[in-house]
Design brief:
alpha+beta, 16 helices, five-stranded antiparallel sheet, 2-enoyl-CoA Hydratase, Chain A, domain 1, Pdz3 Domain
Length: 561
């Protein structure tokens, strides 16, 4: 029998067959043991689930039959479910049948179709953002106006969720709003047709520092990638010798994943990995890559992020960082790297549960792994896993994306944060703008009445309790319990602290003035004006301009030689 030169001789063939049989034996043995172990593990898990469900059922039956008071079955179960889910991430939630409609409206990007955003201030929904050219704007509504009633249904003292539910409705329906404007003696009514509209995701783009492109993105909604691409092309057409581009993702809570991929694709070559989602069911894991040739792979790039930059914002900023394609400036991002899906669980109830995690090109996950009151907790660097960027720079996982250039944020200054959270600046600007039909153009708009602002703060009984004031209150309480007569001394101390509080506000005068000017600009020139006003003295934008115009520093930050 003829054999090819590649065929082994008969003796060797016999040996190979024996060895192959031995390998097959051990392989089959291993697979059998694996199946037994998997089956045992699965059986063990099933037993644990069945056992605990039976314990839970028996516990509830005993409570229902023997507890001294009547029990509300629905509430008791809801409390139990909420307590169980509280041990998981904050995005896994139970949606009861009664909440389904509200959930649908909140999820639907076009459901807020009156043309304004609101916040509960002084017991009423108060207009805090107005979209230019939309229904409310055309109807004469202004920022600072309060919605007193909807179709004569009073809104006072309702929760924000109840207010949203009453205000929102199907596109094409008409609603009559009873509005109250500060400084006017009587309320006014306006009829508005609810209309679907896309909130502009690029409220402003323009040149800063004469030759640097600036583009602001507020949300990853439909065509976000196209809109950023169009803005960049237009700016480059007007200024062919651009020194760099700034993408502002501060305050951007995310949106569509595919738009994050599209935005990365503007500055990163085709077929580069952007993000992978991986969960328990491996068959459902997905990898997302850039699909088309890039718009520009060379121009220096800076991305601005803060603690409110989340999800898709973190995918974009993290991918840019992992490929050393640009410099990140600002504060560590929020840390949301989870994928959610909803599941029907019977009787029109649903469970929104986390099914996977996002991983960016270096292999790190941006998800915060610890939470307190629903907010991610900052994890020390020594507890975070180390990864490398394309140029070999060290980056860490867990708890968001850390900027290459870290800068202090205004919202982190306690007294300024308190002024904003208590709506002092917002309400002051409402008072300041009374009767002013026009305002100076952005380039010349300035605020010069800081003494008036201080008087407003004191009139509004601004509450800012520092750590020292809290300790003083505890000391006062303890001294009273122990019988010390120190009332006059305590009053003197409290007066001194109040004076010091005013001085603390004065210390941050420049920053507060900037915030007041931005709020004023928003009243007359919408979101576009607010962004432009902020750019005039934005420290993070100024830092980005400096970096982009300094090639040696830019390359050094990115680890390039």
């Amino acid at each position: 029998m003829l054999r090819s030169l590649e065929d082994p001789p008969p003796i060797i063939t016999h040996i190979l067959i024996v060895k192959s049989m031995k390998r097959s034996f051990w392989l089959l043995s291993f697979l059998s043991l694996s199946l037994v172990f998997t089956s045992w593990t699965s059986t063990r898990q099933d037993f644990e689930i069945s056992k605990n469900l039976e314990i839970f059922s028996n516990l509830y039956k005993e409570l229902n039959s023997g507890y001294v008071d009547e029990l509300d079955a629905g509430k008791l179960m809801r409390d139990g479910v909420d307590a169980m889910l509280n041990n998981l991430d904050p995005y896994t939630n139970y949606i009861a049948e009664s909440d389904i409609e509200n959930y649908r409206l909140n999820r639907d990007a076009t459901s807020n179709n009156l043309g304004f955003e609101f916040k509960k201030i002084d017991e009423y929904p108060t207009v805090v953002e107005l979209y230019q050219g939309q229904t409310a704007d055309k109807g004469g509504v202004k920022i600072g106006d309060q919605v007193i009633a909807v179709d004569n249904k009073e809104l006072k003292n309702k929760s924000e969720d109840e207010m949203a539910y009453i205000l929102r409705g199907a596109a094409g329906t008409q609603v009559e709003l009873t509005m109250r404007r500060p400084g006017q003696n009587s309320d006014y009514k306006v009829k508005i047709n609810r209309q679907e509209f896309e909130i502009p995701n690029v409220p402003y783009s323009g040149l800063v520092g004469d030759d640097v492109a600036y583009i602001s993105l507020t949300t990853f909604s439909s065509e976000a990638g196209k809109n950023i691409g169009d803005a960049f092309r237009n700016l480059r057409r007007d200024k062919p010798d651009l020194k760099g581009v700034i993408i502002d993702l501060r305050g951007n809570g995310g949106g569509y994943l595919h738009e994050a991929v599209n935005i990365c694709n503007l500055f990163i070559p085709r077929n580069e990995l952007v993000v992978t989602n991986r969960g328990k069911v491996k068959e459902k894991d997905q990898a997302f890559r850039t699909q088309t040739p890039s718009l520009d792979e060379k121009i220096p790039l800076a991305v601005l992020i803060d603690k409110f930059s989340a999800s898709a914002s973190e995918i974009v900023s993290g991918t840019i960082q992992d490929y050393d394609r640009g410099v990140l400036i600002g504060q560590r991002s929020f840390g949301k790297g989870l994928v959610q899906n909803t599941a029907e669980i019977g009787y029109n109830n649903r469970l929104k549960l986390t099914t996977a995690r996002y991983y960016i090109p270096s292999g790190r996950c941006i998800q915060g792994v610890e939470y307190k009151n629903g907010e991610p907790v900052d994890i020390p660097d020594n507890r975070r896993a180390v990864f490398k960027t394309r140029n070999g720079r060290t980056v860490l996982d867990g708890g968001g994306v850390a900027p290459d250039i870290k800068m202090e944020q205004a919202n982190n200054i306690p007294v300024v944060k308190a002024l904003m959270e208590q709506d002092i600046i917002f309400r002051y600007v409402t008072e300041y703008c009374k009767g002013k039909e026009k305002m100076a153009e952005i380039k010349t708009l300035t605020f010069n009445d800081f003494d008036g602002f201080l008087a407003f703060v004191q009139k509004e009984n601004f509450v800012f309790r520092t750590a020292s004031e809290k300790l003083l209150e505890q000391f006062k309480q303890k001294a009273m319990e122990e019988g010390y007569a120190i009332d006059n001394d305590m009053k003197n101390m409290e007066t001194a602290l109040n004076r010091a509080q005013v001085e603390l506000i004065k210390k941050h005068k420049d920053l507060i003035v900037k915030l007041i000017e931005k709020e004023i600009a928003g009243r007359y020139y919408y979101a576009n004006g607010r962004v432009q006003m902020g750019l005039l003295r934005d420290p993070e934008v100024l830092e980005a301009i400096k970096v982009l115009k300094d090639p040696a520093r830019y390359q050094q930050i990115l680890g390039k030689k």
